């Protein structure tokens, strides 16, 4: 029997008891399985049944120091001081989160000193320093294998200023209108950085403040060019870049200034906030290769804003809920039934700068795979095989009397 032949109730019961790592694989079985695992009722029950944590790490900078706090509506029993980063050797800024409960952090004291960790098990490893000559512009993290664990980091650095003397002598007219962002990739399989070709953006195109979204086997950033926005996408498999356009209706007047990049059921999504009325639209890229967008939901926030004041939708928590940031608070709003949960934040978070979605279990993980060593029995068998290849021609010659 195919998985999609099962009733939704049976699938719900089976999937809600699966470990997090297996659940991610089951999402590939069918569209029904995938959609079911992103429902708000499923996520809450799955957290309870499998001892899984889901929520957000809220981060705020104050007087050049970063503060982070974990908050969750599906794990009310997990206090903010139970899931912290105090096990790391120094204070850090969160730079990215990824599958398997992984997090990329950067030292607050020394630029370009990175740590990869799993906060729920308090495991961590130091990442080799990238090129110290560059100043980091954007960083992101992508898990590409779970058994064994393999992940990649992407680092884009600020363009280097051109020297006027060299610019006139070695200038390339066709590239003069572009900025070069040095690009480096860290691969956990070899535990080293490598340099890729520079990323070229026009002089009037800039990165938005938000962090990267992981979808379709790649990483995606929102960029702005005047009154227009684009998506800069990194393909992990090809290690290549491309620019993706937003829906045409977004690129007129001031529409593009009220767009946030998000993930919806594993797909790339956009949250468009109407500036004149409390209305949000959720758009989903239904065909990544054809770059086709489809409007999935229209969310009326009038009643919510009447009770809570005007808030801007920040990102999606799951298929039913929007995550909203406010003063000393975070709100998770269910736009299908109009209910919401308000989460009070510590006084360090007057207004949070960023929120990183975080889903994890308590299973220990091997962050850095040991290099394969040739075992002694294997060495002997290899030696015997090589000797066999060496003496076979001699044996044949002797037998034939050559």
Summarize the structure.
Keywords: Membrane, Transmembrane, Transmembrane helix. Pfam families: F-box (PF00646), FBA_3 (PF08268). The chain has 402 residues and is of the alpha+beta class.
- What's the pLDDT, averaged over the residues? 85
- Note the total helix count: 7
Count of spatially separate domains: 1
> How much strand content do the residues show?
35-45%
Rg over alpha carbons: 25 Å
What is the CATH architecture annotation?
A: 6 Propeller
Unreliable sequence segments: 373-382
Largest sheet: 5 strands, antiparallel
Number of strands: 24
Percentage of helical residues?
10-25%
Q: Considering the protein shown, what is the CATH homologous superfamily? A: Kelch-type beta propeller
By CATH, the topology is Neuraminidase
What's the overall geometry? globular
CATH classification class: Mainly Beta
Distance between the termini: 64 Å
Structural class: alpha+beta
